[in-house]
Design brief:
205 residues, 2 domains, four-stranded antiparallel sheet, five-stranded mixed sheet, alpha+beta, Nucleoside Triphosphate Pyrophosphohydrolase
């Protein structure tokens, strides 16, 4: 039920944002703004994000609404995966975050790994482009694509950054509590599959 309502609210938001972008009639613009508020109400009910924060995020959106992009860097050493502990929920994920304008996906992966785990890496392989709705993430306001890029360690010492409180390598059998908004168990297992199968083709959706 949560996911059905989540999809409905995201679709309403998309229609409302398009209407506000291309509409010209004042009456229509007022109705589209009302639809945007209704979608925020539904999202607040079915996620853990307060209504005020959702409307603030909506207010920052301009133009035709498109999916947000989350880019993650994947680094292995000695059959262990580099993970960072998020300050926001004290759970673990692979380094990454929202894509920034002006950076390519691989540049974002390199930047996020350095900022969150303190090491320099070189991007080597695209592993996956995933639609968040197709995976067991908790409900969140935005429609999101997730990009996982395998990187090679170059230099530096693993250490937490401003948004993380710890960073360490983990074997598949010893994974810590996962930040499921960012990384699910099945996705972590998929990353190990790529590590063990260098010829594995990238996956999508």
């Amino acid at each position: 039920m949560h996911h059905d309502w989540l999809k409905t609210a995201q679709r309403i938001q998309s229609i409302a944002q398009a209407g506000l972008t291309y509409g010209e009639n004042d009456y229509d613009l007022e109705r589209y703004q009302e639809l945007l508020q209704l979608s925020a109400c539904i999202l607040a009910d079915y996620t853990n994000v307060p209504f005020e924060k959702i409307t603030d995020l909506f207010d920052r959106e301009e133009g035709y609404l498109t999916p947000k992009v989350d880019v993650r860097g994947v680094i292995f050493q000695d059959d262990k995966l580099l993970m960072v502990q998020e300050k926001s929920d004290r759970c673990w994920t692979v380094p990454g975050g929202w894509a920034d304008v002006g950076y390519s996906p691989s540049e974002i992966a390199v930047k996020e790994v350095q900022e969150e785990a303190g090491i320099d890496v070189v991007p080597e392989r695209l592993l996956a482009v995933l639609d968040k709705k197709c995976h067991a993430h908790p409900p969140t306001p935005f429609y999101t694509y997730k990009i996982f890029i395998q990187c090679r360690y170059v230099a530096g010492t693993v250490a937490p950054g401003a948004e993380t409180q710890d960073a360490a390598f983990f074997a598949l059998s010893e994974l810590p509590s996962l930040s499921e908004e960012r990384l699910t168990q099945s996705q972590a297992e998929l990353l190990f599959d790529f590590h063990h199968q260098p010829e594995k083709a990238p996956v999508f959706d």
